């Protein structure tokens, strides 16, 4: 009976692996599966789903390591998407988020590919009591600046090798030669250059960080203006006195079943 269960589990794993690899031969980054949980792991380093506590510790260490690395590179990067929304509320990662997002210019992306691609980095935080190793991996399709079939919209990843959780890196480029004041990523998020630059200096998760100049406009364009004011979302309520997203009391017992992302705020 146990052997039968093991064989079935092994078959499912092999089926998922084959499906992912066969999905698109041109796709560079792969995830172990496409459901809400597995799609936030890099398939190469996935060993199993982590707990909520491990996820939060992993992401906090990862963003600190990433920002420190770019300061050492003397290259500009800024936080984006759901990570930027977390910064807007309390300069912390949204408690329901399962990955991180950052952006760079197309020029910086090329520098990363030429000088720092597929490099490994060690990071130790005494405050978090954690030691981790990361892979900075740039998609060989980074030079292609259009969406195409959507298989390679992510230009790079900063991956925690202990569990496969990652930070997505996307480059912005001016694809319209007649309008160089507008830049976009390969997932067709478009920005006015004046909304991004000059970058604002700030802090995020206790580390020095940069954010877009017109951050409120950028967030409203992506998530609607409600994302900047609605203080109850994803089974959490924002406590202004504590400056924290708190799990709603009725949902505390079910917190392990909360999906990692959802709705307009993910």
From TrEMBL:
- Topology class, membrane: Single-pass membrane protein
Q: Where is the signal peptide?
A: 1-22
- Family matches, as InterPro entries: FKTN/MNN4/W02B3.4-1, LicD/FKTN/FKRP_NTP_transf
The molecular function terms in GO held by this entry are: glycosyltransferase activity
Q: Which GO terms describe its biological process?
A: glycoprotein metabolic process
Question: Is the keyword DNA repair assigned to this protein?
Answer: no
Query: Which GO cellular component term is one of those annotated?
Result: membrane
- What keywords does the record list, in alphabetical order? Glycosyltransferase, Membrane, Signal, Transferase, Transmembrane, Transmembrane helix
- Organism domain of life: Eukaryota
Q: Report the main location listed first in the record.
A: membrane
- Looking at the keywords, is Transit peptide present? no
Which Pfam families does the protein's record reference? Answer: LicD
Q: Which residues form the LicD/FKTN/FKRP nucleotidyltransferase domain?
A: 74-180
Enumerate the subcellular locations listed in this protein's record, separating them with semicolons. Membrane
Q: What is the name listed in the Swiss-Prot or TrEMBL entry for this protein?
A: Mannosyltransferase
